[in-house]
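A quick aside before the break. I want you to see a complete sequence-to-structure record at least once, exactly as it would be stored in a machine-readable document. Don't worry about memorizing anything.
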Amino acid sequence: SITVNFRFSRRWSLESGLSYTVLFSSRETTVINHKQTKLNAKLQYLGIPLLLNFDIVSGEKFTWYTSFGAMVEKGLNARYTTVHLSNGETINEVRESYPLEGLDVSAIFGMGIDYNINKLLSYYLQPGLSAYFVTDGSPYNPRVSRSVWPNIQTGLRFHF
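That is the input. The structure line, written in tokens, reads:
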């Protein structure tokens, strides 16, 4: 992610920017009569978060903070690979790719550490949870199967 952080008090700030997400999924069937199928999926998203951050502990180089808010993501594309195996060797491989329609909406909560590179720029690492809301336009993806997922957000943050 690349975000812009606007501080409106000593501990509180508002943040938005651009986030890139990749989801990987892999499944395989059991071996029956020496045959097996492996399925791999890769979905890519571009999102815009809107977050409220609260600094728990601030130092010269590091800040420990908590963050909560929402994000809207547009699916870019999906790539699926199906591999058919016989006796452990590939006999057929099918690759498909298509654009994703619709938007995903999520609520985000996390706690992170911000490392100050200088006064205007920092690097952050924020583990947390995302709750995904299925909308009419949501494309099918692994996040639809259950609503709350762990996540790790990382990137550059510009401070103003």
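Two observations worth writing down. The chain has a mean pLDDT of 91. The first helix runs from residue 142 to 145. We'll return to this after the break.
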